Amino acid sequence: MNGSDFTHRVCEAYSKIENPRVNALVQSLIKHLHAYVQENSLTEKEWEFTWDFLARMAKFTHEERNEFLLAADVLGVSQLIEILNHHRPESEVGYALVGPFYRENAPFRARGAAIASDDTAGIRVKIYGKVIDDSTGKPIANAVLDTWQAATNGLYETQDPNQPDMNLRGKFKTDENGNYELVALMPTPYPVPTDGPVGELLKVAHRHPLRPAHIHFIVSASNYETLITQIFVSGDDIVKTDVVFTASDNMMGNFVKENDHYELQYDFQLTLGISTYPEAPIK
Ligand code: BEZ
Ligand code: FE
């Protein structure tokens, strides 16, 4: 039996999956996996390395860390899914991968409040602007902005026992004119975790592990598609080599220095549609 007859036989064995979409995805997965093995004439040793690599990824996966999601991120898969699922004009804010550090149930904070505890080190930035309907330009009242960022030591609150619970996370609502305002830290670059198999991959590829400085936002409102995005710092060189291929021109913020802090005016556009919410990698 040659390779392609064999692939056909395996596909046949999975052809009775009732859900048509799942059926198509499984058939396609088998075809592409088999094609990968064939094209590269995978050796037994290489196969052993592969399943051991996956097993080691599983060992690095727990409630607060998902090495599989991180692998998808550094291989460009997560951002590709955003690109394929959201087509917007370049003048609108772009969609970004959610990343492994999003946590649900961040507290609602008052308009203009800080997401950083008072003793969190770092320069503050006041971020303000509007959430608007992208077809009419009209402001959207009661939109929710769910934001999170890393501390200046490069760690999210869940990775750092020295930060209070929910530090650098918070939800804000727009007022009747679609305005929001909050205080965050001036973001700084940080490395993705490199102590696991994904770190090995980056090392052999001679890729740096850095994410450019950014702040995450999920912007939602009823009857609008939820916008998942990140704001980067215009002029930051690392945006060109973002380890997860997310930073792009339609996510740049013009941070302006004002005495001891920065200010950023930034509007978010929403498209009419079904309001959904992403699964949180950290529960
Ligand atoms: C983040 O920005 O939080 C992130 C995204 C992808 C991989 C690692 C971290
Ligand atoms: Fe991040």
Question: How would you describe the overall organization of this protein?
Answer:
The chain is α/β, with parallel strands linked by helices and 283 residues long. It folds into two domains: 3-62, no CATH class; 68-270, Sandwich (Protocatechuate 3,4-Dioxygenase, subunit A). It is 25% helix and 20% strand. The strands form three sheets. Strands 1, 4, 10, 11 and 12 form a five-stranded mixed β-sheet that branches. Strands 3-2-7-8-9 form a five-stranded mixed β-sheet, with no helix packed on it. Helix 1 (3-13) runs antiparallel to helix 2 (20-39). The longest helix is centred in the first third of the chain and has 20 residues, at 20-39. Bound molecules: benzoic acid and fe (iii) ion.
Poorly predicted runs: none
Query: Can you say what the CATH homologous superfamily of the largest domain is?
Result: Aromatic compound dioxygenase
What is the SS-derived class? alpha/beta
Name given to the CATH architecture of the largest domain: Sandwich
According to CATH, what is the class of the largest domain? Answer: Mainly Beta
Mean pLDDT, to the nearest integer, reads: 96
**What share of the residues lie within helices?**
25-40%
N-end to C-end Cα span? 48 Å
Q: Which fold name fills CATH's third level, the topology of the largest domain?
A: Protocatechuate 3,4-Dioxygenase, subunit A
Number of strands: 12
Output the number of helix runs.
6
